[in-house]
Fold this protein.
Amino acid sequence: MTVTGGPKPKAVHVADVLREEVKKMQPGERLPTQRELADRFGFAGQTVQNGLAILRAEGVIESAGNLGNFVSGGESKEDVRDDIKEIRSQIQTLTERVAELEARSGPGGM
């Protein structure tokens, strides 16, 4: 089956279609090979590779080199971003607390 692209870039189309299919798959499940996907979509291998790169950047899939691409079982990048924001907030709070304690102890420390 050949899937044709719309007005968006072909690599984005590949990523969009695969993103929906991956939602129905289990973590660790292997995606079809790049060649199989290129045949299915009717696009060049580089276009499919670029679409897969989008999904890897989003954390939707993981590459295992020559073994192929697999559905990610970890946190999405959005989850990681939220974790980083929380850690930064905690660091800021601790930094303010340390500055407060240092100010109380006066010059030269304790």
Q: What stands out?
A: The chain has four helices and two strands. The CA atoms of residues 34 and 49 lie 7 Å apart.
